[in-house]
Amino acid sequence: MSGERRPAAVTCTAPINIAVIKYWGKRNEELILPINSSLSVTLHQDQLKTTTSAAASRDFKEDRIWLNGREENINQPRLQSCLREIRRLARKRRSGSEEESTPCILSYRVHICSENNFPTAAGLASSAAGYACLVYTLATLYGVETELSEIARQGSGSACRSIYGGFVQWLMGERDDGKDSLAQQIAPESHWPELQVLVLVVSAERKPVGSTAGMQTSVETSPLLKHRAEAVVPDRVKEMCEAIRQRDFERFGQLTMKDSNQFHATCLDTFPPIFYLNDISRCIIHVVHLFNTYYGQTKVAYTFDAGPNAVIFCLEQTVDEFVSALRCCFPPESNGDMFLKGLPAGPAVLSKELKMAMDMEPRPGGIQYIIITKPGPGPQLVEDPSLHLLGKDGLPKHSA
Ligand code: DP6
């Protein structure tokens, strides 16, 4: 390929987010409009991220996409919505501007290549990071800067929250066209520096019922979900915003656990019922409550999405001791060295009293590994061209 025929290419990364007030249920399937507002914490990309490269070239015959080294069907409706909306905005931005008469990459086809550095569909919100990254990367390629959370939402609801770092609210909105159903940052990642997040990977397998299908059945059959959306979440979102603003861990942790429990209660209230938690998930819940009861305050808090993995919030000063407690209750099996990933945790000696308070049958291998992370920033542009996932020929550098 000659110099000027090289594809225009951009690479970006985007974070996953974990909801502390859950989104579950749509009022409009096509536009992905939720039945309640939700609130999340964006996790740091040093530990968990999606990387996406997008290139446009007059040599490309069709739009194509590769996910984790495998080519996927680009004609899926949600992918098409994101591509169509970004191109619409790019066209709008160009019309009337000086660039209008110059050759435009907008008329070219695109190649997109995306990779996660964590297991896909393990209940680790891979679709959120994936769609946020896709939309941010295409927007950067075409020079679009507005409405990104609205477009990411049309890829996967929770993706709209991954467009921002720190603490993020997704306002459900009232309009039928979804123009007011978007995410907003309520505090940046620097707001609560002591807050840490432990991702406990219980199972890296694909979930039995995906979120999209699961929430659809819940909307159709669960009276508890209706009650939750109308009577519980509105006040809870306000209270959670307050707890975050005041860095009040006691309130933040209690609300986080109660909301996770209510979400899983709506799953049980769905007919036929959906079970995302397993035996180990329930043991983790038990361990958290034993730990908090021993201290007489909320020192650690759990939340679970549509899968058995737990996400634990705690303050920095609690990490070492709680990780030691987890090691006691879920002794690592073969991969002792690989048990902890991400930010460091030091050794901690558990007092005899705490050990007695945590008295339960150990579950060897119950937790495969723990990723220690913290709140982090929103999507980022990758400047270093050697990190692009597509080669100069517009094809993935690595295949599955
Ligand atoms: C349990 O955003 O994956 O993680 O909009 O159908 O793509 P779709 O669903 P998705 O649902 C996420 C559900 C959740 C809770 C949350 O993240 O708020």
TrEMBL record:
Q: Which reaction does it catalyse?
A: (R)-5-diphosphomevalonate + ATP = isopentenyl diphosphate + ADP + phosphate + CO2
Q: Would the keyword 4Fe-4S be found if you checked this record's keyword annotation? A: no
Protein name in the entry: Diphosphomevalonate decarboxylase
The record's top EC class is lyase
Q: Which Pfam families match?
A: MDD_C, MVD-like_N
Gene Ontology cellular-component terms for this entry are: cytosol
Answer whether the UniProt record assigns the keyword Lyase to this protein.
yes
Describe the task this protein carries out: Catalyzes the ATP dependent decarboxylation of (R)-5-diphosphomevalonate to form isopentenyl diphosphate (IPP). Functions in the mevalonate (MVA) pathway leading to isopentenyl diphosphate (IPP), a key precursor for the biosynthesis of isoprenoids and sterol synthesis.
UniProt keyword annotations, A-Z: ATP-binding, Cholesterol biosynthesis, Cholesterol metabolism, Lipid biosynthesis, Lipid metabolism, Lyase, Nucleotide-binding, Steroid biosynthesis, Steroid metabolism, Sterol biosynthesis, Sterol metabolism
Q: Which residues form the Mvd1 C-terminal domain?
A: 197-381
Ranges for domain Diphosphomevalonate decarboxylase-like N-terminal come to 14-183
Q: Name one GO biological process term.
A: cholesterol biosynthetic process
Q: Which GO terms describe its molecular function?
A: ATP binding; diphosphomevalonate decarboxylase activity
- What family does the Swiss-Prot or TrEMBL record give for this protein? Belongs to the diphosphomevalonate decarboxylase family.
From the broadest rank down, the organism's phylogenetic lineage runs: Eukaryota, Metazoa, Chordata, Craniata, Vertebrata
State the EC number(s). 4.1.1.33
Kindly tell me the pathway this chain contributes to. Steroid biosynthesis; cholesterol biosynthesis
